[in-house]
């Protein structure tokens, strides 16, 4: 190891082939035929600029099958801000896609979205994936948890690796923590950067932490922490329950290239595409960007071997794209028809192939992308857990704390600060509730 730093159905196939740049903030798809007074127009809020082309093709096919419905795709550069602005103006779109994260959970709990539990397509979703959605928050307007989003595409956070570099150095894919560290030592001894790290973008310290912490934390940690934050007791804490995860985070980042603090995510994608490191601490979501730099990049993947029990490995997965319907849309029937089309197996599969994602549908055929081969079996078997950072309020500056942690190596301060920031947010939330 390096010496420590100064801790300084046919149509859906077509959708996969059409890829165009997001050149405008508002993209209009489909043309209304003359005299179509009975045509319904759906406002479709779509948050991924890199997927505008995919959804344009999907919309064209949908409109061809449903000439009475026109869909206008709206794609904006800052979707989190845009959606909140629309909500303030009481202009909830008819159909939406959002990343299913903590921000989504807040909106779901506020009962912004319709209940989709009665839609037959909800029964086609892998329960393990839907559980991740439900865990982030739901509307309970009638005393029962609703289904406010259906997962359209899932990602997986593992370790990406270069199979050619592994083979040239006689290194096998690690299945335990000790094997991972031994592999890193081998690469380092051979003059190869074990990991390419990009701490100029603070969030890039998070993928490793969510894998380490998600595997090592006690069952029900966040539920207990939230309950105790309002009750004055403290049987769990980050200091007590995340110390091992923080130590292992620091260990991994001790194997980064020397200039890791000045490199950003875009630089990391290019560097890994060019074979500048054996491994990359990013998930499936990085694969399209890596291939954009080098279509022939050698990419493999494997789950984080967090412990020395190979059977304990799981894959951290998030719903990269969830589909919602505005709760008070005047076009509920048409919106539901569009959602059902989006959730059809052919459309989901075509999008998964194009964007290197995992299908969230039951009995879906595995994504055959070789870069996903090391993660796919865990996803298909339901050996997945959600992103723990989605459980942490946005007001807690987790990524900034992680950035400082991996630069300084000061785990005690990191854990103490994380507990302190959590407590501050919990105290404000409790005060707000009492004031209502």
From TrEMBL:
Highest taxon of the lineage? Bacteria
Similarity annotation: Belongs to the bacterial solute-binding protein 1 family.
Q: Name one Pfam family in it.
A: SBP_bac_1
Report the InterPro entries cross-referenced here: Bact_solute-bd_prot1, SBP
Taxonomically, what lineage is the organism? Bacteria, Bacillati, Actinomycetota, Actinomycetes, Micrococcales
Signal peptide segment:
1-34
Q: Does the keyword Nucleotide-binding apply?
A: no
Instruction: State the UniProt keywords alphabetically.
Output: Signal, Transport
Q: Does the keyword Signal apply?
A: yes
Transmembrane annotation, as ranges: none
**What protein is this chain from?**
Sugar ABC transporter substrate-binding protein
């Amino acid at each position: 190891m390096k010496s420590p730093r100064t801790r300084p159905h046919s149509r859906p196939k077509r959708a996969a082939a059409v890829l165009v740049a997001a050149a405008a903030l508002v993209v209009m798809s489909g043309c209304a035929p003359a005299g179509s007074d009975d045509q319904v127009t759906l406002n479709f809020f779509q948050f991924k600029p890199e997927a505008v082309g995919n959804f344009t093709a999907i919309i064209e096919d949908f409109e061809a099958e449903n000439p009475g419905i026109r869909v206008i795709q709206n794609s904006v550069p800052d979707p989190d801000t845009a959606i909140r602005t629309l909500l303030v103006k009481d202009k909830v779109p008819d159909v939406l896609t959002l990343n299913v994260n903590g921000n989504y959970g807040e909106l779901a709990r506020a009962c912004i979205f319709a209940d989709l539990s009665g839609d037959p397509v909800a029964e086609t979703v892998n329960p393990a994936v839907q559980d991740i959605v439900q865990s982030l928050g739901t509307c309970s307007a009638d005393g029962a948890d609703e289904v406010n989003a259906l997962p359209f595409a899932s990602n997986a956070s593992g370790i990406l690796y270069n199979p050619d570099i592994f083979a040239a150095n006689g290194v096998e894919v690690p299945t335990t923590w000790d094997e991972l560290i031994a592999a890193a030592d081998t690469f380092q001894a051979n003059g190869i950067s074990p990991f390419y790290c990009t701490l100029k973008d603070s969030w890039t310290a998070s993928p490793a932490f969510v894998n380490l912490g998600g595997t090592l934390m006690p069952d029900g940690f966040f539920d207990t922490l939230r309950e105790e934050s309002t009750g004055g007791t403290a049987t769990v804490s980050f200091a007590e329950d995340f110390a091992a995860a923080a130590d292992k985070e620091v260990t991994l980042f001790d194997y980064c290239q020397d200039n890791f603090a000045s490199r950003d995510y875009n630089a990391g994608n290019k560097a890994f595409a060019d074979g500048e490191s054996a491994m990359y601490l990013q998930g499936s979501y990085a694969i399209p960007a890596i291939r954009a730099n080098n279509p022939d990049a050698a990419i493999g993947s494997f789950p984080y071997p967090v412990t020395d029990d190979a059977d304990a490995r799981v894959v951290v997965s998030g719903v990269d794209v969830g589909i919602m319907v505005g709760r008070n849309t005047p076009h509920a029937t048409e919106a539901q028809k569009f959602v059902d089309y989006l959730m059809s197996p052919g459309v989901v599969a075509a999008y998964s192939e194009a964007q290197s994602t995992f299908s969230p549908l039951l009995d879906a055929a595995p994504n055959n992308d070789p870069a996903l081969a090391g993660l796919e079996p865990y996803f298909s078997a339901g050996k997945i857990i959600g992103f723990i950072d989605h459980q942490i309020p946005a007001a807690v500056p987790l990524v900034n704390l992680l950035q400082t942690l991996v630069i300084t190596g000061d785990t005690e301060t990191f854990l103490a600060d994380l507990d302190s920031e959590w407590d501050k947010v919990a105290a404000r939330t409790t005060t707000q509730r009492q004031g209502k």
